[in-house]
Specification:
Helices cover 18% and strands 37% of the residues. By secondary structure, it is an alpha+beta fold. The longest helix is centred in the N-terminal third of the chain and has 17 residues, at 60-76.
Length: 260
């Protein structure tokens, strides 16, 4: 079956201009000796704001801006949003890094000085460099260096999108395989759902505030096998959208990029 869905009411999710869309895992101890596995933490529903610093005075303003935003979100979303501060090339000791963080009053942060947390895995180097990640797909929602790393609006939009992605779980017994092609989409995109059995499916779209702005399918019974939903993208702005697909065994989230 095929449905043509207009996206005029979609709200654009602003995102940074970076090429890598998923995080690179690391497993190491922080400066307090606690072990961290990035993917395991993202899978558990955490949103991670990772900030590489030299440390130096020029890193302070963007880092402090990000820190204040994270603290605000941590208060309204307890146990969900965390800030990690990493020495850029792990050539400063934890003592030096802790001294810089403490000097500029950024408690409630996790600090690292370990070369496995490699900023080169995320494109261009520069201090500070801030990357925001979330969701079971380990999606990158923000990736900026230098003064751009302190862009308040972009950081807020990215954290909102990451929180939305983190709220969507994945069940390995899911009865649906989903893909979107082409992605990025120019004129239209085809959402393909291959079902093991006939099940009821809901497809929803979320805006940059994590609010539902459209229900594409609401508990609609789809047939076993392949189902295609064609979405017109010719009249919407370029950018990134989050699509949530729910069926009896769980939910999945997909990123849909539009590029005219």
């Amino acid at each position: 079956m095929k449905k043509i869905i207009s996206l005029f009411s979609f709200v654009l999710i602003a995102c940074s201009g970076f090429s890598q869309t998923t995080a690179t895992n690391f497993n190491c101890n922080d400066c307090s000796g606690n072990n961290h596995d990035l993917f395991a933490e993202l899978n558990s529903g955490k949103v991670i704001v990772l900030d590489w610093v030299m440390p130096c005075s020029s890193c302070l303003l963007p880092s402090k801006t990000a820190y204040n935003i994270v603290q605000s979100y941590a208060a309204t979303n307890p146990g969900k949003v965390f800030m990690y501060i990493a020495d850029d090339y792990a050539n400063n000791s934890c003592t030096q890094l802790n001294g810089w963080v403490d000097q500029y009053s950024m408690p409630n942060t996790t600090r690292f000085s370990n070369s496995v947390i490699d900023m080169s895995k995320y494109g261009s180097s520069g201090m500070p460099k801030i990357v925001i990640m979330g969701g079971i797909n380990h999606t990158i929602f923000f990736n900026e260096i230098n003064t751009a790393a302190g862009d308040v609006t972009k950081i807020q939009v990215a954290i909102n999108a990451a929180l939305t992605a983190a709220s969507i779980s994945k069940n390995p017994e899911s009865d649906v395989a989903i893909s979107i092609n082409p992605n990025p989409a120019i004129i239209n995109a085809n959402v393909s759902l291959t079902l093991k059995n006939s099940v009821e499916v809901t497809i929803e779209v979320f805006n940059s505030l994590g609010q539902k702005v459209m229900t594409v399918i609401n508990n609609e019974l789809l047939a076993q096998g392949k189902n295609d939903i064609e979405i017109s993208t010719s009249d919407i702005s370029e950018g990134l959208y989050l699509v949530k697909v729910t069926e009896p065994f769980g939910t999945k989230t997909l990123r849909l990029a539009v590029s005219h």
